[in-house]
Specification:
With 118 residues, the protein is an all-alpha fold. The chain is built from four helices and no strands. The longest helix has 60 residues. It is elongated, with a radius of gyration of 28 Å. It starts with a helix and ends with a helix.
Length: 118
């Protein structure tokens, strides 16, 4: 790995870790975990947090909001994947059960035929 690549990865990880720590230290962490923070609450919270500074800090706010949106999208994708996987597993189980039932019926029919033939 080149030094330049290492440096870029290090910067990226540092940035992600800082954002994670900010989220963990936020007042609404439990609400984030429960998914109970509404868009209105987020807006009002950001308004209070970033509002009094004057003209500076706009880029930081945008970056943080983009980061939060990306995290939410990733969480939604993860939930969809889990749901899809669960559905697929359930379908497979149902198919297996149906196949087993069909085999049992065939065995029963063969047993009945052999019993009536003798």
């Amino acid at each position: 790995m080149s030094a330049e690549t290492y440096h870029e990865l290090n910067e990226m990880l540092t940035f992600k870790m800082k954002n994670t720590l900010n989220l963990l230290n936020s007042k609404d962490f439990s609400k984030f975990c429960l998914g109970a923070v509404t868009a209105e609450e987020k807006d009002s919270r950001h308004g209070r947090h970033w509002g009094g500074g004057g003209g500076g800090g706009g880029e930081e706010e945008e970056e943080e909001e983009e980061e939060e949106e990306e995290e939410e999208e990733e969480e939604e994708e993860e939930k969809k994947k889990k749901k899809k996987k669960k559905k697929k597993k359930k379908k497979k189980k149902k198919k297996k059960k149906k196949k087993k039932k069909k085999e049992e019926e065939e065995e029963e029919a063969l047993a009945t035929l052999s019993a009536s033939a003798s």
